[in-house]
């Protein structure tokens, strides 16, 4: 009877041992499961800025410095023995008006004077007659402004809509129309004048270059001694222009690129030249940045060793575990944290081994922290009773490791919001730009072979103010 009882006790202990050993799924760091998560997307970002410039601003620049002489030439042939001397002077300030179809109409007061000459041979004799004229007029010229590839404000489809008076004259029974002659010469002169330095005072290229550089300039935030630097690599520049009936020139400047981050020393970003310009068909005012907080495994290891290594994990009143040498890696869709441990028991010798803790990285909105969920746990040691004892306390151990491995980033998010407002301000020669009330949210979290990536997304609008204008 006693023998049967002893066998029953033995079988019970064996079943208990097998149950405890089988209760935890074995973790094999060298043979991780296949990840099922999709690769993290590129952190694409874009900003679209409508820059509103009153036509009065262009008008003022056109009227600051101007030469009164527009055109002067003698002996222009009109055909059929007709010639003309022409002298055209600008006599007043240019006025601009926005019209339909993205057109600007320009009224240019001018004075047209000269001589019409007719030379005819009659019976072998050359007869010559002059007809002087001196006329004031204000022709209306229209054109479409267009930003060129060199960032000049080009003049497209320049046309003289009307002269404000007839350009036909009667000379000895001949009707002479000066329109074709004067039109061709004046269009060439006005094209040069409107494209000259008066309009390029705005320096659109410099404005775009500064915006391009501001978009790629790194900015830094700090969380408990951990410095994180966000920076972008711009890749595409888009621009278009619009003339409105409320007398504005609107430039739609769009920049696209990819955002990156680096922990530790500030990255050295080499300035890049402006790329080719693409047409911008978007007229909205928005800033949409996706910023990856990239936590490389070696940086995570530094944090975990600082927070966990050497700390006590109590399993019961007689035993504590001291973890050390923590190291992380990808483990399927989870992050695996491996650590050495020393088990200290009252009145008994120390036991050494390894523990493995694998969990899915998630972002806790309430705590504003990166945590590990859906935890797996395993222990490796040559001491079978110790292995059983630790596995029997796995929930308690998991809970403590889970708590210590939490990475709070609330202050980092707060600093990132403040830094966005600071970095979102820059100046050009004629305007200031500022991000209005950027909203920073966590977009998602991804686990890769090299790191854990927390995607932060900020949205807002740009406030653009021309200098000397309200």
TrEMBL record:
This is DUF4403 family protein. It comes from Fontibacter flavus. The lineage of its organism: Bacteria, Pseudomonadati, Bacteroidota, Cytophagia, Cytophagales. It holds the Pfam family DUF4403. It comes from the Bacteria.
